[in-house]
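DUF6126 family protein: structure tokens wanted.
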Amino acid sequence: MPSEDTGVERGEGRFPRGLALRLFAYVVAGHVFAFFLYLLFALGAE
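Answer:
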């Protein structure tokens, strides 16, 4: 089987742009959620 390009450009081992942006958004959202939980427990302990 000859290897043919399927139209998907891989680049030089870099993440696809959409995946990198989604990963960044998930990391930011995860930290905001963790901060909210921390704040909830810190204020509830007083």
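Helices lie at 17-44. DSSP finds one helix and no strands in the chain.

Cheers.
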